[in-house]
Design goal:
The complex is a heterodimer of chains A (83) and B (413). Chain A is built from 4 helices and no strands. Chain A is mostly helical. In chain A, helix 1 packs across helix 4. Chain B is built from 14 helices and 14 strands. In chain B, helix 2 runs antiparallel to helix 11 and helix 7 packs parallel to helix 8. Chain B starts with 7 loop residues before the first helix and ends in a 21-residue tail after the last helix. The chains are: A mainly alpha (83), B alpha/beta (413). The interface between A and B is medium-sized, with 15 and 17 residues. The structure holds pyridoxal-5'-phosphate.
Chain lengths: 83, 413
């Protein structure tokens, strides 16, 4: 699968914009809970959508560690590099 | 405040409920009168939220066996089974459960919660994989966290998503253990177990089914969803509880697998807690007996379940995807759920409120559960109170004729 960080980040941001249904400024430093106001259920849904799109599974302990979009990009990049 | 500062927003919500004088998470039953009635706030109240599916809590045979056991063997075991020994009650109950399920091995735990902690944490080791249905009960998530396996979850009741996850793990070393429930406790929907079993076979995984809400409820002999779906041979481990259909407390696991007993010295929630007292085990054993002897209880339960489910749907409430002893109605938001719950209680009907994150899809639910012990008149009375409170709060149309009566929550299946 494509692995250049830019592509992956674009896919993640695009999926997130779809999930938020309102225009938002997104960056690596965007805090998923504090800045986007997603609750734990919404975060789970969003991650599941990404898992489908990228054909990767994110273990729960990894999800728990993720706070910013940068963390998410990094975690997904590592998980995808493994396969 | 320091230590609890992190709970400030939650504490504020809790205080609000207390001040409003109706906190669904802090209800006192002054006197319990029967499986279906209690005195709450000084008034006789119809119980429609107890999980007492077969109504066995006051069964004379169950009570007699329990009394006999406490007099014969004392009030407690004062220790764990590995450190302080097993009583005949433990072994007898394990044999009875294994016999009921037609399996070689049975193991009892001090609660159903601990059964999940004990089984899931022990089955999957550091290099193994636990794959959970996303809507799993807290005890399943906690059991997964207690162990050292990699944990992922798949979309609720989706064999496709489960297959995707197993496919991604195909060349990854380690055993794969799938965990699902029989009946889901929030919406009362059942797992597509036949399809899950097929996926499990295809990928050579193990399958655990938590039949907490389906023991004594589903299946030709009450063994649960695995029996009803005809896939018992594909289910490697069945976990369950004595606290719902059996009207007691305690949990169990049954299996056929070779070497099962090693779990007794590796499962920490089994090893490091006091074992069940004799009176509790005697009650569970006799309740299991009653379950086997009286299939009529199960039929009455399902008939009551359908009556309530259809009755509430006809009024215009949005109910779960299929009739089951758990009957939940979808509320627009938590505040409405609290108001509705509180109004029902003031009318003499006790139900439950279920909120995210315990509920799927962030739903606020007014949850009910029926019992075989409910009379038809009690079910109809409850439906009448739902109608009255629901119209008062503008949750349903003012006349039955205006209700569409087809608002089933389809998405959960
Ligand atoms: C699916 C499920 N598993 C396990 C449990 C835990 O059982 P217990 O309350 O007997 O500890 C419950 C209920 O609380 C449950 O709903």
């Amino acid at each position: 699968m494509q692995d250049s960080g830019g592509d992956l980040q674009e896919i993640i941001f695009e999926t997130l914009r779809g999930a938020l249904k309102r225009p938002v400024e997104l960056s690596e430093r965007t805090h998923i809970v504090d800045d986007l106001g997603l609750d734990s259920v919404a975060v789970m849904d969003f991650v599941m959508e990404l898992e489908d799109r990228l054909d990767v599974s994110v273990p729960l302990d990894r999800i728990a560690e993720i706070e910013t979009l940068g963390d998410l990009v990094k975690a997904l990049r590592e998980l995808m590099a493994r396969v | 405040m320091g230590l609890f500062a992190k709970y400030a927003p939650l504490a504020a919500q809790y205080r609000q409920l207390e001040e409003a004088g109706s906190n669904p998470f802090n209800v006192s039953f002054e006197t319990v009168l029967s499986p279906t009635e209690a005195i709450i706030g000084g008034r006789a109240t119809l119980l429609l939220g107890t999980n007492n599916y077969l109504g066995l809590t006051y069964d004379p045979a169950v009570i007699a066996k329990s009394v006999e056991a406490v007099e014969l063997s004392g009030t407690g075991t004062t220790g764990s089974r590995i450190a302080n020994g097993s009583y005949e009650g433990h072994r007898g109950l394990e044999r009875a459960l294994a016999d009921f399920y037609g399996r070689r091995h049975g193991m009892v735990f001090s609660t159903g919660y601990q059964a999940n902690l004990g089984i899931l944490s022990a089955l999957a080791g550091k290099d193994d994989h636990l794959i959970l249905d996303a809507d799993s009960h807290a005890s399943i998530y906690d059991g997964a966290r207690l162990g050292h396996a990699q944990v992922t979850r798949f979309r609720h009741n989706s064999p496709e998503d489960l297959a995707n996850r197993l496919r991604r793990l195909k060349d990854v070393p380690g055993d794969k253990v799938i965990v699902v429930e029989g009946i889901y406790s929030m919406l009362g929907d059942t797992a597509p177990l036949k399809e899950f079993a097929a996926v499990k076979r295809e990928y050579g995984a193990y399958l655990v089914v938590d039949e907490a809400h389906s023991l004594g409820v589903l299946g030709a002999t009450g063994r649960g969803l695995a029996e009803e779906a005809g896939v018992e041979a594909d289910v490697d481990f069945i976990v369950g509880t004595f606290s719902k259909s059996l009207g007691g407390v305690g949990g169990f696991c049954v299996a056929d697998i070779e070497g099962f007993d090693i779990l007794r010295v590796v499962s920490r929630p089994y090893m490091f807690t006091a074992s069940l007292p004799p009176s509790v085990m005697a009650a569970a054993l006799e309740a299991l007996n009653q379950l086997r002897l009286r299939p009529a209880l199960r039929h009455q339960l399902m008939s009551n379940a359908r009556r309530l489910y259809n009755g509430l749907a006809a009024l215009g409430f949005t109910v779960g995807p299929e009739p089951s002893p758990v009957v939940s109605t979808v509320m627009p938001d938590p505040e409405t759920a609290f108001a509705f719950w509180s109004r029902l209680l003031s009318l003499g009907l006790y139900t439950n409120v279920s909120l995210p994150p315990a509920t799927p899809k962030g739903l606020a639910l007014l949850r009910s559960s029926v019992s075989a012990a409910h009379s038809t008149a009690q079910i109809d009375h409850a439906i009448g109170l739902f109608a009255e409170a629901g119209r008062e709060l503008g949750l349903i149309p003012l006349s039955q004729a205006a209700a569409r009566g087809d608002a089933y929550l389809a998405a959960a299946k």
